[in-house]
Amino acid sequence: MDEAETSNIFYVPAPSLPSITPPDSYDPFRSQPVPLIIDNGSSNLRFGFSTSTSPHSSPNVIAKYKERKFNQSLLLFGDAIDAESGAKSQGKTPWEGDVLLNFDAMENALDYAFVRLGIDAEGIEHPVLMTERLCSPLHSRALTSELMFEQYSVPSLTYCVDSVMSFYHNNKPASGSTFGADGLVVSFNTASTSVIPILNGKGVLSHAKRIPWGTQQSTEYLLKLIQLKYSSFPTRVTSAQASWMLHNFCSFATDYPAVLRSLKIPANMRAAERIIQFPFAIPVIEEKTEEELIRIAEKRKEQGKKLQELAAKSRMEKLAKKENDLQYLTNLREGKSENKREWMNTLQVEGFDDDAALDETIKKLEVDVKRARKKDPDGQDDAIEEPSFPLIDVPDADLDEEGIKEKKKQKLMKAGFDARARARREKEKEREEKEAEGRREEEERENNFDDWAARLRREQEAIMSKIKERGRRKAALSDRKSAAAQARMKNIASLAADERVSKKKRKAGAEDMFGADDEDWQIYRKLNAAAVSSDEEEEFNQLRIIESKLLLHDPTFTAQHTHASITSQRSALISAFRPQYEEGDIEGSARIHLNTERWRVCETYFSPGMAGVDSAGLGEVLQGILARFSEAEKARLVKNVFITGGPSQFPGLQERLHGTLRPILPPEMHLGDIVHAADPSLDAWKGMASFANTDEFHQVSVTAEEYQEWGGERIKRWWGGNCNSAV
Amino acid sequence: MPPKGTTKKRAVNDGSTTHTPTLAEQLSYLHNPRPFKNPNYIKNANRRTKNLKTVLGQERERERVERERRRQERDSHAMDIYEVKKELVDANEEISTYLSIEAPPSVLPQRHYCDITGLEAPYTDPRTGLRYHDKSVYELIKNLSPSAAKDYLAARGVNPVVR
């Protein structure tokens, strides 16, 4: 946040292939009792001889993988797993958090270590110094000892605590004297963070405390936060990428609430964000060239023409058929014989009931043919002739039965015809009215623009408020305790009540008169919360019409004033927190913005409750530990506060610890600077290496004979090791 | 810089197959000779990877047994008070196992942080239980699906019981 970045955008690193290096030569160490140092870490395995300056370091992961292509079984370790994509899923680590559980993997890891060191003797002939966790479970220790003594035949084995060794390395005594420093060691490991007080060079392990929160949990938490924030992210974010983000962008805040208060302002949030750009793929749109487009258009036109021709042909055929029918029937009518019965038979054969039916059909056919003929050249409809109804005016008495029937039929037809004519006239009138209205509005607009605009705007606001009101009512109805919902229940209860009709009236035989009045049915609108969709649509349509008119003519009414944009407007804070990119912006949608997460993840070290871990934070633990010592001892401890471990490299940690410790100590007590290990990842190993070269090393190691006698769980008590089950 | 990577020993005899070994094969050390291993060693059946829970359970058992033992020892030395004191001191100092050094639960009052943005959260949504920073965040919460709300709560460690 302090340095000005010209570009806030960072690209996710692409994984690189591991390299092949030959194993070390064993010659300098053959048959020499040079101690072998193994720092068995949850994330990295560091190993080497104590006389080397620095160890080999490699991620502590094994993968036993059967390759599909050539059917080879492979055993890969550490970085090498990146060489084979399928091996990553088969990776196993010997550690589960802080406890050494998987001894097959441990064995393979140690095998790798020894192969790498080039050891080719029978059995390891060097005394070994290994790390274990603070107060590690005896099960782990027993099995490790068994592995070392029985499988690898080491002459002697010593366990130590890695953070104490790192402390030793940074506070080395003058040569020859024993280690007697004081201090408070805060060790940040992969799956835990521990605080160990050291007095007189001896770790007071009974007062040490361990918080079950480390890099592993922090990475998972960051990953979870990112997945929640970007639930529809195009690519999957892996743990490796999350840990890369953790290492590069997260830091401790000296005063977390103050940081949050400053981030509340959207401008600050934007300034503090880091944009991570993930790789994305631009979809290839096949752009058709001009020629192709023209060709496609022509093809379509041709197809259209063909269809038209087909339609015309079929019409001609139908017309011809109709004409034939007409001819046939007319001939039939003209050839009508005198004999009525014969005529009737003929008619019935043709399918007509009587003369009138035949006449009707002929007339219809004639009309059709005429219309079709007229349509072909110019395609215009005739004016509809007014059919005549001669019989309506003739009174009933004059007609015979058939006549009466005819009259009824004609009355119906006339009624229908009249109704249709009336409807047509009304439609015309409406259209004229609408046109008149439109013209009036245009006049108004041209003459008195402001008034017109103001009126339309008022209408738009009225509709918008109605929509909002409706939305609110719907929300209120869904809430069981709101006034609207209770009113609704009262209505239902009153409808279903037995006392709708009072007892007296019921005895007299009166019934519930609900429904006689049209207004009664309106109650169902109030009851049924979902039956308002038709009204909604109407309102939306009106709103759209008004808005389009305004958009067209009023220059001050922009797209931002429309209802759609107002409802979808997101607050400035949310858009700073999670910027929204356009639909088609593929590059933008593959971006992750980290703003509050940068401090939130590191803050969990000091309050694991934020992430759901029910444990005291670092500050509280420190306070608790210091409280168990006397004042004098406290003073000695806080003079030398030492932080070590890979995660201690987070920026801002030292200030934060200082800020945490200062308030809980009496003001006159001197709080030394928080000392950082010189090389946080490798210092433990280096401390072990230098310790192994001293004489004291041999005094505290467990030899093979002692192992045979005591078993794998007992160790000798010394200042750098654990003291559970120690002699 | 310590060199990274693994051995170059090839797993397959080149003469028998026609393919060049891949990088992974070159890095594999499955077939490397391991003379330092004791061929007579029989793997302890006890070594089957145990569950973390069982291991911790064993620790707890062991600790309890130890404590009982010490208490009995102290009781038997009840006559000599000086020895008792020494035993007490020793007992307190020595009993520190993997579980005993675990940090205690927090007693400080928890600060409320917004589940969505991470800023301070003075408000809580009664329907879902999410904490939020201000009304614009509340608008967002209103439109969350129940499963998304549950995910947010799980990130905080609150797992609502679904009957």
Automatic annotation (TrEMBL), chain A:
<feature type="region of interest" description="Disordered">
    <location>
        <begin position="371"/>
        <end position="447"/>
    </location>
</feature>
<protein>
    <recommendedName>
        <fullName>Actin-related protein 5</fullName>
    </recommendedName>
</protein>
<dbReference type="Pfam" id="PF00022">
    <property type="entry name" value="Actin"/>
</dbReference>
<dbReference type="InterPro" id="IPR004000">
    <property type="entry name" value="Actin"/>
</dbReference>
<dbReference type="InterPro" id="IPR043129">
    <property type="entry name" value="ATPase_NBD"/>
</dbReference>
<feature type="compositionally biased region" description="Basic and acidic residues">
    <location>
        <begin position="417"/>
        <end position="447"/>
    </location>
</feature>
<comment type="similarity">
    <text>Belongs to the actin family.</text>
</comment>
From TrEMBL, chain B:
<dbReference type="InterPro" id="IPR013272">
    <property type="entry name" value="Vps72/YL1_C"/>
</dbReference>
<keyword id="KW-0539">Nucleus</keyword>
<feature type="region of interest" description="Disordered">
    <location>
        <begin position="1"/>
        <end position="26"/>
    </location>
</feature>
<dbReference type="InterPro" id="IPR029525">
    <property type="entry name" value="INO80C/Ies6"/>
</dbReference>
<keyword id="KW-0805">Transcription regulation</keyword>
<feature type="compositionally biased region" description="Polar residues">
    <location>
        <begin position="14"/>
        <end position="25"/>
    </location>
</feature>
<feature type="domain" description="Vps72/YL1 C-terminal">
    <location>
        <begin position="112"/>
        <end position="141"/>
    </location>
</feature>
<protein>
    <recommendedName>
        <fullName>Vps72/YL1 C-terminal domain-containing protein</fullName>
    </recommendedName>
</protein>
<keyword id="KW-0804">Transcription</keyword>
<dbReference type="GO" id="GO:0006338">
    <property type="term" value="P:chromatin remodeling"/>
</dbReference>
<feature type="compositionally biased region" description="Basic residues">
    <location>
        <begin position="1"/>
        <end position="10"/>
    </location>
</feature>
<dbReference type="Pfam" id="PF08265">
    <property type="entry name" value="YL1_C"/>
</dbReference>
<dbReference type="GO" id="GO:0031011">
    <property type="term" value="C:Ino80 complex"/>
</dbReference>
